[in-house]
């Protein structure tokens, strides 16, 4: 879709169901490369990134059956022969790098295009590479590709200098078949990492500690296919929560992963919203006027960087002054210029945005600079 037309000024009312988490589906799709027979993933959302990853898996030789209406995705990788992910596919989606670990684990070699940077900031894969080297892989980078080889990966102790979700997942996928134990220190805590670990354990892997800073993977020789349901998307749920709160709405959010959104919920309550846990989901009741709150983005379980733009939008019409600090990505205030076109009063000072609430915003033609 190239254009979305929004007629504003209405309270949001009713019920909405949260989709499956994109950031959980993609690692599960990559994990299918570790097993030849059919894996089944349910609750798959209808998103462009899913289609892109399907194209990548098809290029590698996978067979895929997908019913977008039911959200069921089946993948068989029995015919995968060419462990290479080309630039034309990887450049469109950074998560494509997730095939590096499982391809190396299964085929002893993998060649994947470097994903490069992105609009919200540099996100290098050096920690992925360092971890694979620790496990005994030979790594070469030339002409924009990283080629990794290892006759047999060996367990190692890996410390991640900075918390990285895809780095944690890639190393976990590579370590499943490694000889001995692999320990990942300073691992990412995100629910999507836990979802991947749970699925791998059901396939026969031996992973402990997912969701903590230390993950231990004891290598196994064989995995079996499984059916796994994708967890609800906490960012989608959080977006609905903010939308309800800022419009003085009354919205029941079905399948809301409330326990994954504690930091956001605390800020919404501080801003005056009511959040009520009900059977099957969460109800959000907005209040007016919205109270100003300060926000600082940090890795999970702190306030998510992917909710920063939404909470800033809410603060644009709050009573008072808000300071929003972005610590995760260095270039994630591109939406500020667009909000100012709608009448927002925002000043940027380095990694901080100072938002002074105005009475109301007005409609304007806008561009989405970042998802």
Give the helices and strands, then pairings.
Layout: E1 13-17, H1 22-31, E2 39-42, H2 48-60, E3 63-67, E4 72-76, E5 84-85, H3 87-90, H4 100-107, E6 109-113, H5 126-134, E7 138-142, E8 145-149, E9 157-159, H6 165-175, E10 181-185, H7 191-203, E11 206-208, E12 214-218, E13 227-229, H8 234-246, E14 250-254, H9 262-270, E15 274-278, E16 281-285, E17 295-297, H10 308-315, E18 321-326, H11 335-341, E19 345-349, E20 352-356
Helix pairs in contact: 1-2, 1-7, 4-6, 5-6, 6-7, 8-10
Short description:
The protein is an alpha/beta fold and 371 residues long. Helix content is 28%, strand content 24%.
Total count of strands: 20
**How many strands, which pairing sense, and closed or not: the largest β-sheet?**
4 strands, mixed
Kindly estimate the percentage of residues that lie in beta strands according to DSSP: 15-25%
* Structural class designation: alpha/beta
Number of helices: 11
User: What is the terminal separation in angstroms?
Assistant: 13 Å
What is the C-alpha radius of gyration, as a whole number of Å? 22 Å
Helix coverage percent: 25-40%
Report strand order across the widest sheet.
Answer: 1-14-16-15
Overall outline: elongated
Quaternary structure state of the chains depicted: single chain
Which stretches are low in confidence, meaning pLDDT under 50 for 5 or more residues running? 117-121
Q: Mean pLDDT, as a whole number? A: 94
